[in-house]
Every structure is written in C-alpha cells, then in structure tokens.
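for the writeup, i need someone to sanity check this before i put it in the appendix. the sequnce is what the collaborator sent (i think, or maybe the updated version? ugh). structure was predicted straight from it, no edits. if anything looks off just tell me and ill rerun, i have time this weekend
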Amino acid sequence: MKKIAIIEDDPGLNAGIVLALKSQQFQFSQYYSLEEAKEVLKPPFPDLILLDINLPDGNGLDFLQKIRSRACVPVIIITANDQEMSQVTGLELGADDYIVKPFSLMVLRARISNALRKSGSALTFSSGDFLFDFENMQFYRKGQRLELSKTEQRLLRLLVEHRGMVVSREFLTDRIWTDGAEYVDENALSVTIKRLRDKLEEQPSAPRYIHTVYRQGYIWKEEET
C-alpha cells in the first residue's frame, strides 16, 4: 500500500482528493498547513507528496526544498498559480510534476501513478554528505566517488529505501543474495555491513548512518553531528 501525504489548506479539495483516490492501493495523511506537515520530514517518509504552494503559514516551494534535503520522495505541486515561472521554479527545486487548479481528479490519479512508477524504477538519494544514484551505479560522499561492490550496492539500496525503519537480517540476506544459492554464510551480511560502513563512515566504530539494532537487524538513521 502506497502512502500519500496531502498538504492542501482547502478542506474541500483535500477531502475530494482522498475520496477520488480512495482504494486499497493508497493510504493517506492529510495536512492543512506547513506546521502540521512537518511530520512528512521525518522517517518513515511517504511514497508521494501532493504539495500546495500557497499555504496559510508559508510558501510550499520553501517547504519543497526542505523535503529535498531529506528525501527523494516524489512531489507533485498543486496550485492555483498558472504562471510559467512558478512552474519552472517548482521543477527546478525538485518537484516531479506540476498540476494547476482546477484540475481533473482523473488526471491527478494518472499523474500520481506515473510519478510512483518512475520512483519505483529508479532511485536517487541525496542527503547531507551523500548522493547515491542507484540507476547509474554512482555513489558520492562529500563529492568524492565511492566504489561499491554489487553486494554493497544492494545492501545500501535496501537500507536507504527503508530508512528510519529496522530491517531484519533475514530480510536483507534473502534480498541481497538472490542467486539461488542454497546456503549463505551467516557472517556474509556482517562482513558486508562492515565493508559498507568503512566506505561511508568517517568513524565506523561510532556509526552515524548504519546502526545495529540488537537481535533485530539494521537501520539507516542519520545522526546529528
């Protein structure tokens, strides 16, 4: 089930979007101001955000920049402002699409499906010191290229996709080693975790990103310096 966050101050439109898209496919979080919407800046992030530009307590474009500094979740801007410059600005700041009010809810549904399909086929993650382009297999830390093995890439992608959530060792092992091998050494995951930490962390002994959760698994969680 895909989680969609709606940030729209018009109660009628906010409710109308939920009604039009309501199905077993989507789960909704509704916000009517930027203050309320701060929840979407915390993991686990929604799968898609519908963001109005003109909100009672601020500009949605400023909020878009905050979203982009934390997550690569698809964002569709919804607004009454049909000026071309506003559309260009929104797209340059990282919006995935732009739809002008009044709009057809059928068209909105199609735009959402398209954005979710694109996000599922390719993943780029940018946060803090990191830029990970999984589609092109390019990984950077503080602008410096990182060389990751295919196994390390699979592990990193799983952790980033589930950031803020504890991912079990069993799940990671099953998803990383998919070559049909009947037996995978129980230390293989621990070794891969250590190698990845060594490449990502300045001080692997005090991890800031990949954390071990005792008897459960691992979690990608960025710690403040």
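The two ends are 34 Å apart (CA to CA). The first strand starts at residue 2 and ends at 7.
thx in advance!!
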